[in-house]
Design a protein that fits this description.
four-stranded mixed sheet; alpha/beta; six-stranded parallel sheet; 250 residues; elongated; homodimer
C-alpha cells in the first residue's frame, strides 16, 4: 500500500468536489447516487440489493478488510475528513446507487409502516432501524417526508437502510385502497396494552408537530394509544413507533 | 410597547454576549444559570421549582401572554436570532437558575432511571421526556453523562426538565447501596414481554456504543431484553428506554 503522503495526492480536487456535491439532494437526484459512511456499511450494502459504485477508506480499514478491497480507494485521514459529512469521520465513505424498488408492499400477512410527513432525518433513520429490529421491511412514506438518501437519515438507520424498503407515495391515495386494518398512533385510541399481538396491518405515524394529516386520518380504522402516567405532553415520533411496534409483537 | 426599531436598540452588545456565553458549559457553571427556549417553557418553569432570572421575547409573544410579562424584555426578531441557539428561534429565550436538588431519590415504591454515560444530548433530553410520560421523576446520571443544562438536552426534554429530577453521581458507588431490584437493558435478559408490571426498582440504561459499564453491570440483578424479530444490530438508547418503561407500566 502507498504511504499516506502519496495517498494524499490521489484524489483530485474535482473528485473531492464531486463527492461533496452528493450531500445535496439535487446532486444526489441527478446522479442517482448517495453516500453512506462507517466501517460496517460496505459489508451490509454488499449483502443487500444496493450497488456500491465507489468507496474511499483509510489504509487501516483496508488492511483489516482485505477481502473487500476491490472498488476501494485508499485515502489519507485529511482526505477522508474532506469527503466525509460526519463530525468524526469513520474510516470509510461509500458511494452507492439509489434503488428502484420493484413491486409494491405486500400487505397481507405483514406489518407495514406509513410515515405521514416525518420531517426530522434522525427520526426517519431511527424509525427505519426500529422497523428492522421488529422484522418489518416495508415503509410507505408521504412525498413530503424527509428524503431517504439524506445523509443523516442514512447514518441514523445504522445499516438498516439495507434491509428495509421505503416507497414514497401520495399516501392519502394509497391508504384509501388498503385492505388490511389501518392502525394510527393517536391520543384517543385503544391502549397498546389491550390490542393483543398484531401481525397484519398498516401503522400510521404522523408528523412530529402536526400528527396525522386529515386526509390520512379518515382511513385510520384502529386508533392506538400509549397510555400516559405522567405529565409530558407527547412522545417523540420514533419513540412512539418503537413502543407501539414492541406491543404489536407481544 | 415600543416599536421594533426601539426594541432593537435595547440590548447592549455586552448583554447579547453574556447570553451567548451561556451556551458554553464553563459560563453556565460559573453563573449557575442555563438557557431554555420556546413559547411554553416559561410557564412550565414558573410552575416548577426553577427560578426564572430573565426572559427575552418577541412583542407578539408578550401581547399573547400579558399575565406573564413581569421579568420579560421585549426584543426584535433580529435580536432574538442573535441570542437564540436554535436554527429557527422560537419567540422567547429564558435564563433560569440551575437547581440544587434537596434530598436523594426515593427508591422504595418508585421507578428510578440510572443513565450510565449517556453522551448524546438528544438522547438525554428524550429520555427525560419519556420518563416524564411514564410518571418517573427520578434519574441518576453518571458524572460522565452529558450535562443536563446543555441547550440541546434542555430543548429535547420539551419542558419535562421542569418535572424530572436529575442527580449526577458516581453511579458505581451509588448503585452498590441500592436496596431495590436493579434492572438493566441488556441483550441476554428476561424478555420485556414476560416481566409483568414493575413499579419499583432502578432501570440502568448504558452508553450509546459501549452499553452498561462493568462497574455498574455487576450490580444489575435483573437483566431485561427487548426481543428482536429482524436484523438490526441494536436499538437507540432512548428507544430502548421508552419500550422497556412502557412494558414496566403494563
Amino acid at each position: 500500500l502507498p504511504d499516506n503522503k502519496n495517498i494524499a495526492d490521489m484524489l483530485s480536487k474535482n473528485e473531492v468536489k464531486y463527492i461533496q456535491s452528493l450531500c445535496h439532494k439535487k446532486s444526489r437526484d441527478e446522479e442517482g447516487l448517495f453516500i453512506a459512511e462507517g466501517p460496517k456499511i460496505i459489508n451490509e450494502l454488499s449483502r443487500s440489493n444496493f450497488e456500491i459504485v465507489k468507496a474511499y477508506a483509510l489504509k487501516e480499514w483496508v488492511e483489516k478488510n482485505a477481502q473487500n478491497t476491490k472498488q476501494i480507494i485508499v485515502v489519507s485521514p485529511s482526505e477522508l475528513a474532506r469527503i466525509s459529512s460526519l463530525k468524526t469521520p469513520n474510516e470509510i465513505v461509500v458511494i452507492a446507487r439509489q434503488k428502484v424498488i420493484n413491486g409494491e408492499p405486500v400487505l397481507h400477512g405483514n406489518l407495514t409502516l406509513l410515515l405521514d410527513d416525518i420531517q426530522d432525518p434522525g427520526n426517519m433513520g431511527t424509525i427505519i432501524r426500529i422497523a428492522d429490529w421488529f422484522g418489518i421491511n416495508q415503509i410507505v412514506a408521504s412525498e413530503n417526508s424527509v428524503e431517504l438518501y439524506n445523509q443523516k437519515v442514512v447514518q441514523a438507520t445504522m445499516g438498516s437502510i439495507c434491509r428495509v424498503n421505503v416507497w414514497y407515495k401520495k399516501v392519502d391515495e394509497w391508504v384509501r385502497n388498503v385492505s388490511v386494518p389501518v392502525y394510527g398512533a393517536l391520543l384517543n385510541g385503544q391502549s397498546v396494552y389491550e390490542t393483543g399481538a398484531i401481525g397484519e396491518g398498516v401503522l400510521v405515524i404522523g408528523n412530529e408537530s402536526k400528527g396525522i394529516s386529515e386526509a390520512v386520518l379518515k382511513f385510520v380504522s384502529n386508533p392506538v394509544t400509549i397510555p400516559k402516567f405522567g405529565e409530558a405532553e407527547s412522545l417523540n415520533a420514533a419513540i412512539a413507533t418503537g413502543i407501539i411496534l414492541s406491543h404489536f409483537r407481544k
